[in-house]
Specification:
By secondary structure, the protein is of the alpha/beta class. It has 13 helices and 18 strands. The strands form 4 sheets. It has an 8-stranded mixed sheet with strand order 8-14-13-15-16-12-17-18, with helices on both faces. It is elongated and about 95 Å long.
Length: about 450
């Protein structure tokens, strides 16, 4: 049976016969179809009596009726229209030729540069990877952004969230990472973005060099919620295609929150009861399935996931942010107060954490990072006193050093959006700063002890 395994799997995923139904009713975003006994997730075509056809997806059923949601607008749908089953196991075309291209959620190019020759098809919803098939994360993945590489160092196969409110610079940070990462391939999903911002991101944030090694998947806010959901799964399928060919892939999604919003729209449309803040239970079931698709696996190739989470009102306990943080291997917090000071990237390194940083950096790097974080935490405690002139210099050697070195620390943490910082140089700067800090604190402590002894 083994020689026929591929053929059997192909037959299993194929539509065994022509199955059709007819439109009975239109309820909000959903179409009720009778006589269409095909599985949830199947792709269908709704054939209008005037000759046009529109794609849709089965999202539920009730007795003898099937609930279908279109991948586009419902305009033009009429009672009695034929609905034809197309694909029971949803897939998307994938190919190495996608590099440098912009595609939609169906895998079709939208950049006006002609068709893409596809070499394979990837499953949109594959079976979860066994935890025993995942290898440990032991290799570093650099981003070219000092604040990330020095303080929240990423590992190949890690999944990390970028938590930020609107207008704090997450898209610009994504572009910086895409240009400077050591990954072989970038797969970037723009989910629910404004149409205007897509071109701006590609031209300005990503740039020609970044696009050349990237695949950009786009589903804008004016498209069907199914297209926004599908875009996230299409990006994951493309990333898995490159991973299976031995590449280290950087998968970036902006944003998981808009993906969750689309899931909520679909869930409410098919009658799911709303739960926390209107989110349906299926949202919190689907989030880990999507996020767990990134990571390591036995053999060569990894997917490192960077997912942006748009926190409403800068509330980090918002339901989607809370659920995502429990699944991810770390989080990068973008602080609005830093952004307002023109501090880019606006990463709050005190609140940010990479759970694998200790496994992919050497002890000297770890010690230097902890030393600088200690200074930042101390500075945060005395900052208000310093601003009002109430801090007494000489009362605490660590606080004095934190105040003195704060401009130097900020110089390491700040970086132009279009600059790429090599990891070795960033590490040297961090180690030098930590050494200077330790020496300054020691000198101040000795001076204090000498003063006490003389008194």
């Amino acid at each position: 049976m083994r020689p026929l395994a591929n053929e059997i799997e192909t037959l299993r995923q194929s539509q065994p016969m022509r199955v059709t139904g007819r439109v009975e009713a239109l309820r909000g975003l959903t179409i009720i179809v009778s006589g269409l006994p095909i599985p949830v997730g199947s792709l269908v075509m709704i054939e209008s009596a005037v000759g046009s056809a529109m794609p849709g997806e089965v999202v539920g059923f009730d007795g003898r009726t099937t609930t279908v949601m279109t991948l586009g607008q419902t305009s033009g749908v009429r009672p009695g229209d034929v609905v034809r089953g197309e694909q029971p196991s949803p897939t998307v075309p994938v190919s190495e030729r996608m590099l440098g291209r912009v595609i939609d959620a169906m895998g079709e190019p939208i950049d006006g540069r002609g068709p893409i020759r596809m070499s394979a098809r990837g499953l949109l919803s594959p079976e979860p990877t066994s935890p025993m098939a995942r290898t440990r994360i032991v290799s570093r993945l650099t981003t070219g952004v000092r604040a990330i590489d020095c303080f929240t160092t990423l590992g190949k196969g890690q999944r990390i969230g970028v938590f930020a409110g609107p207008g704090v610079g997450k898209s610009t940070l994504m572009g910086s990472v895409a240009r400077g990462t050591s990954a072989d391939v970038n797969v970037i999903a723009l989910i629910g973005e404004r149409g205007r911002e897509v071109r701006e991101f590609i031209d300005d944030a990503l740039g020609e060099a970044g696009l050349a090694r990237s695949v950009v998947v786009v589903a804008t806010s004016d498209q069907s919620p199914l297209m926004r959901i599908r875009a996230a799964h299409t990006a994951s399928a493309v990333a898995e295609h490159f991973r299976d060919r031995g590449s280290d892939v950087m998968l970036m999604m902006d944003s998981i929150t808009r993906y969750a919003h689309a899931l909520r729209q679909v869930g409410l449309a098919v009658g799911e009861p709303p739960a926390t803040k209107g989110y349906t239970p299926s949202v919190f079931a689907m989030l880990p399935r999507l996020l767990e698709r990134a990571g390591t696996r036995t053999g060569s190739g990894t997917i490192t996931g960077v997912y942006t989470i748009l926190v409403e009102g800068d509330d980090m306990t918002e339901p989607v942010a809370d659920a995502a943080r429990g699944v991810l291997d770390g989080h990068i917090i973008l602080d609005r107060a830093l952004a307002q000071k023109a501090h880019f990237p606006a990463i709050d390194v005190l609140d940010s954490v990479s759970r694998v940083a200790g496994d992919v950096t050497d002890p000297e790097h770890i010690a230097a990072r902890q030393e600088i974080l200690r200074l930042l935490a101390t500075h945060k405690k005395v900052e208000d006193l310093v601003q009002i002139g109430a801090y007494a210099s000489g009362s605490d050697p660590v606080a004095d050093t934190a105040i003195e070195l704060k401009p130097s620390i900020d110089a390491v943490l700040q970086q132009s959006p279009h600059a790429v910082a090599p990891f070795d140089e960033a590490r040297k700067q961090l180690l030098a700063l930590a050494q200077r800090s330790a020496q300054t604190i020691l000198a101040r402590q000795r001076a204090a002890h000498a003063g006490v002894g003389a008194a």
